[in-house]
Structure formats: C-alpha cells, structure tokens
Amino acid sequence: MIEYVNLKPNERATHIRIDMYYRKDSTPRAPRGYYLSVFPVTRETRHGVTLESMECFSGSVRLLMEVSRKSAKAEKEAQERADLIRDIMVARMCSQHGLEVEE
To answer: How far apart are CA 97 and CA 64, in angstroms?
Structure first.
C-alpha cells in the first residue's frame, strides 16, 4: 500500500509518501515482517511520466509486526496497526522538516 499526502508549497517536498510493505529477508537489525515508512518526496510529471525524488535519510521506518511468513491475516492486522500510527508519523515528519500538510 502506497499513499501520498499533499503538502503546502515549500522548497523541500511536494508530498509525504506513506508505504506499508512486507520485508521478506531478515537481519538482526531488521527482522522479517511488516513495516510502515514515511518520508517527504518531490513528485513531478514530465512527458506523461511521474518522477519521484527524495533526500537520503529524511524518512522514518517502523516495524509494525514481526512475522515468520506473509499471510492475509497478518497483513490485515499490520494494516490496522499502520492506520493507528500513520497520522502520528506524518505529524512527526512535518515537525522535523518544517512541512505543513495541505488540508
């Protein structure tokens, strides 16, 4: 699931990208499971193609749920958890980078 939140005009970014995803490979620092990432991006369309750019290390990632394998049940639960913390992560991202969400 990827969604975008529009930002008020500024010099840093046009949107905040919110992405919930499943990470299959496991490392000691990043276990297998469902994650939520939030980061500012600049989106623009040229010749019918949408381009997206971002600053390195400007985003935030949070483990929603550690699982041993991907399943529909686990994905649904992870989505529910993501819905609970998404707005908090967006607000924190905005305050850290001086951004404002467009209403």
So the answer is: 23
